[in-house]
Amino acid sequence: MSESRQAEWWHRSTVYQVYPKSFNDTTGSGTGDIRGLTEKLDYLQQLGIDIVWLQPVYVSPGHDNGYDVADYERINPEFGTMEDFEELVQELHRRGMKLMTDIVVNHTSTEHEWFRQAISSKENPYRDYYIWRDPAPDGGPPNNWQSKFGGPAWQLDETSGQYYLTLFDKTQADLNWENERVRRAVNEMMLFWVGKGVDGFRMDVINLISKDQRFPDDDGSVPPGDGRKFYTDGPRVHEFIRAMYDEVFGPHQMVTVGEMSSTTLAECIRYSNPERREFSMTFNFHHLKVDYPGGRKWELMPYDFEALKRLFSDWQTGMQQGGGWNALFFNNHDQPRALSRFTDDGTYREESAKLLATTLHGLQGTPYVYQGEEIGMPNPRWSSIREFRDIESLNMYRILCEQGTSPEEALAVLQERSRDNARTPMQWDDSPNAGFTAGTPWIKVDERYKEINVRQALERPDSIFHHYRKLIALRKTYGIFSEGLYRRLDEEHPEVYAYARTTGGEALVVVSNFSAKQLTFRLPDQHWADLSALGEGKLLIGNTGEEPAFAQEISLSPYASYLWLISRA
Fold first, then answer.
1. Which residues are catalytic?
2. For labelling, which of 155, 198, 509, 555 has a CA lying 20 to 30 Å from the CA of 58?
């Protein structure tokens, strides 16, 4: 590990991500709310969570589920009141837990007062809060950049005749970070939430805030050719983030995570190495593109297991060497459920869920648990396009059909790829609507909730929940989870992912069978010699009910996963 990396409290912590709209509804509105989260804090404390990441609850028209912010300093009445928020902070702190909130500052909603002012006239001082360009010579958009949600990344303002940039939904106007007033306003907004007791920030698509000011056409030489090479990890992005650190993050000792879109390992080292004073850690998404043929999200293929293992290995080794820090995750609000995506959500659902957890939590970084992951929630079963709510999914369904894909085939793609897979209501018990609401849910509840819910998970000592609880406790107990150096052990095995985490005198070893086959995995001779020389193996956690000894040859039942501590103790 780099000498620059010192131990931090959040190296042994686990974060729980709450998608508030789908977590717990206390009013019968059909939409989750802040008090619904407060009501469940004892549950999260029992799981062992240190930090709760609350996704946007600001005033928003909701075109992108709260990531289109219309007022950064007011709570959306749909979720409750500022008093509810303040109570949540108090109750978290009373339990020794911390709150991380989402900050969305690449763009605002077009209903934000800043944009209302900006669109009123070219002379308005807020005009320069956003990115405006004259039309191309043919009268069309200023360049050929594409929105990440489909279609051109520019919207025409009929009144002024200029276009404004929208890298996401057409109602999400990109802020102009070249304007010092924008940067100052963002810092003041974050300090407002610091004053409310917030302990950290998750920064949405923060590596997109600095654009190449030439705004050139994308020549397609770097796939996917949609313009992202001109605004991803842009020319001034590190300067902007360091200024945030100096004014907000550093003085107030905030724990921060940057969401990094289409980034590189080298950039994430820069963002998260503490000597650079930027973020505590970073999210990257490369391991969640291993089933994208040619990088295309809206086409289907079986996932590339070797690519998945190679990416985890490269990022583990690279971040350690560079002194960076990973945010570890398989699931979030923008991704289909990993359980359905990478393993078996049917016959071997419980083994699979525990396998994914063990494999991830043995790595170096700060693990993130997305709501429902800890009880093994799979992708829901979708039967109609009418059941979907996500704007990206609905846009892509339309585009796929326009391109000649049949409605049935387009629906099949959404069933696998839609962000709504992660957004169905949390399954608390086997009562109507899974105990999420007494009203009509804003989105369907998966019908398997009667068998998959929190109540039954808490009652069974061998449940997925208790497996997660044990993994979270192990990270707090053993420093090697934070400090051990990564070493891959499986040499491109077609079904097994195996790795070690080593310090001077001990090792963690994780061996996971990502298949429905019964097989025997043999550790290569050199790895076995190195590890066995450290001492005996003690099984810290497994998912089969068996307690196999650590040996050079390990028998693995379908989706078996084991974690051993090798030491002289």
1. 204, 259
2. 155
